[in-house]
């Protein structure tokens, strides 16, 4: 069967990209293969594990469940872009300090989800953190350290806001 | 790349989408949120010749209010429904159920139309829409029809949708005075499909529950209206529903089977537990007034 390749253009980490792709190529494969942004990890390719989580137009999404042709005109941020901009440096530092990563396979997805949680809910309790991250699998840490790290960042950010208010 | 090859079209209008559907029929697949379809492609559980992406159809994305209903466009996202003030006010059952669906990242993309078209036996919204007496609008080139939620689900992953149709809108009657909703489920993890769940909606007074719709999911092939259980509950004082009768009625209403997630016996046990939670919630909700 022949399928027509398509030209897509979109912004990835603030840079305009234009590429010709097959309709069946997922956004995860597009990022990893076409753009060599391999920080977006691919585990289950069925939306279950969360390793491929990226941000599209300000919302998290599973890059394995989206076709590259669907994100035409969209703004995609991957872990590389978010790291470079320093937008959640504090989360990355807290994961490091608390040993919230071992092999690091789940970490990009965990960070993308944690960052979104903290923009929606600046004071999440541990249960809320667990629920928000419950669709992201980690096979190493047992999750406790990840929850600790996110909780620490929430507290630190709130303390900082508190100081500014004083 | 895992999926088998396909063509991709993104129509700009519903008319165009329906024409594509008429032309490609069984050889086409509608792409809404893609949260079930794309994983199925990746695992080669499914393949198609033409993917028709309906995400460009703004006519299908609104949540609107009329005199006695709210109308949800088929591509309303879970997240939009969860945060909609109209839904919170007039169809709180939907708002209760959505946090139990998938991960927040899934809820940013997945749609109500996709959920009901998929008709997963463990899915939350099909049961809620049956409990609320919702109606679905199905369109094909040149005509439209309405179908009651209860008649739409015909089997495990099977619905009344024909190959040349698109589900366009879901009408939910507004909550009436004195009516209460309750939603409970048990799943292996917060983000997973339910092993057993229940959506309930009825008129609650301090003595009894009337006009009750109690719909279970995860137990049968389709959302299951528990008719015997409902008549036991409606026939008693709300504080005094005899447990043995309740359990016997549930055993008649539900037909769970064994699978890798749990035994039929376990699911039936969950149904009994959840029914008690619904009743307790109705009692305490009434006490608040
Ligand atoms: C990890 C994970 C966990 C999940 N957990 C849950 C859960 O707990 N509960 C739950 O309910 N769901 C769950 N889901 C599924 C999710 O809710 C899907 O979003 C939903 O089943 C399908 O909606 P969609 O908009 O993504 O549809 P799509 O995946 O785009 O489509 C699904 C099917 O419906 C058809 N279709 C879609 N829209 C229309 C339409 N308007 N007219 C005609 N046909 C149409 C498609 O052709 C396809 O066959 C989960 C998914 C994942 C990946
Ligand atoms: S690889 Fe996308 S969710 Fe697992
Ligand atoms: S650190 Fe290895 S999977 Fe999470």
CATH fold name of the largest domain in chain B: Uridine Diphospho-n-acetylenolpyruvylglucosamine Reductase, domain 3
Strand content of chain B: 25-35%
The structure class of chain B reads: alpha+beta
Overall morphology of chain A? globular
Compute the CA-based radius of gyration of chain B: 19 Å
The top level CATH class name of the largest domain in chain B: Alpha Beta
Commentary on this structure:
The complex is a heterodimer of chains A (166) and B (289). Chain A has 166 residues and is of the alpha+beta class. Helix content of chain A is 40%, strand content 15%. Chain A is built from six helices and five strands. Chain A has a five-stranded mixed sheet with strand order 2-1-5-3-4, with helices on both faces. Chain B folds into three domains: 7-53, Uridine Diphospho-n-acetylenolpyruvylglucosamine Reductase, domain 2 (2-Layer Sandwich); 59-173, Uridine Diphospho-n-acetylenolpyruvylglucosamine Reductase, domain 3 (2-Layer Sandwich); 179-287, 2-Layer Sandwich (Enolase-like, domain 1). Helices cover 35% and strands 26% of the residues of chain B. In chain B, strands 4-5-10-6-7 form a five-stranded antiparallel sheet. In chain B, a hairpin with a 2-residue loop joins strand 8 and strand 9 (158-159). In chain B, helix 10 (227-234) runs antiparallel to helix 11. The radius of gyration of chain B is 19 Å and the shape is globular. The model of chain B has no long low-confidence stretch (mean pLDDT 95). The interface between A and B is medium-sized, with 36 and 33 residues. The structure holds flavin-adenine dinucleotide (FAD) and FE2/S2 (inorganic) cluster (2 copies). Residues 101-106, 138-141 of chain A line the site of one FE2/S2 (inorganic) cluster.
């Amino acid at each position: 069967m022949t399928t027509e390749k398509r030209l897509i253009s979109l912004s990835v980490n603030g840079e305009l990209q234009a590429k010709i792709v097959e309709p069946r190529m997922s956004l995860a494969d597009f990022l990893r293969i076409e753009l060599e942004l391999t920080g977006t990890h691919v585990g289950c390719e069925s939306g279950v594990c969360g390793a491929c989580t990226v941000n599209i137009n300000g919302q998290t999404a599973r890059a394995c469940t989206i076709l590259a042709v669907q994100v035409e005109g969209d703004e995609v941020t991957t872990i590389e872009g978010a790291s470079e901009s320093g937008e959640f440096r504090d989360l990355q530092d807290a994961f490091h300090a608390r040993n919230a990563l071992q092999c690091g396979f789940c970490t990009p997805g965990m960070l993308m989800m944690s960052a979104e949680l903290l923009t929606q809910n600046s004071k999440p309790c541990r249960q809320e953190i667990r629920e928000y991250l419950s669709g992201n699998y980690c096979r190493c840490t047992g999750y406790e350290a990840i929850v600790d790290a996110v909780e620490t960042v929430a507290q630190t950010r709130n303390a900082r806001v508190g100081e500014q208010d004083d | 790349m895992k999926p088998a090859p396909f063509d991709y079209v993104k129509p700009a209008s519903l008319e165009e989408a329906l024409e594509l559907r008429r032309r490609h029929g069984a050889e086409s697949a509608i792409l809404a949120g893609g949260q079930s379809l794309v994983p199925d492609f990746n695992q080669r559980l499914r393949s198609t010749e033409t993917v028709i992406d309906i995400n460009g159809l703004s006519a299908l994305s609104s949540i609107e209010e009329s005199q006695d209903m709210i109308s949800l466009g088929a591509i309303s996202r879970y997240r939009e429904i969860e945060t909609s003030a109209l839904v919170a006010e007039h169809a709180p059952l939907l708002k209760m159920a959505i946090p139990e669906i998938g991960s927040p990242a899934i809820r940013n993309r997945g749609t109500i139309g996709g959920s009901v078209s998929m008709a997963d036996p463990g899915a939350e919204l099909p049961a809620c829409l049956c409990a609320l007496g919702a109606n679905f609008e199905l369109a094909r080139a040149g005509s439209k029809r309405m179908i009651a939620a209860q008649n739409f689900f015909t089997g495990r992953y099977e619905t009344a949708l024909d190959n040349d149709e698109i589900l366009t809108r879901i009408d939910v009657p507004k909550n009436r005075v004195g009516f209460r909703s309750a939603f409970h489920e048990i799943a292996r993890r917060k983000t997973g499909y339910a092993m057993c769940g229940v959506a309930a909606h009825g008129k609650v007074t301090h003595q009894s529950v009337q006009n009750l719709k109690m719909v279970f999911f995860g137990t049968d092939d389709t959302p299951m209206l528990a008719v015997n259980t409902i008549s036991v509950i409606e026939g008693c004082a709300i504080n005094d529903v005899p447990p043995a009768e309740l359990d016997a009625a549930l055993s008649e209403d539900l037909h769970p089977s064994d699978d890798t997630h749990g035994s039929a016996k376990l699911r039936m046990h969950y149904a009994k537990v959840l029914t008690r939670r619904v009743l307790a919630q109705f009692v305490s909700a009434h006490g608040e007034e």
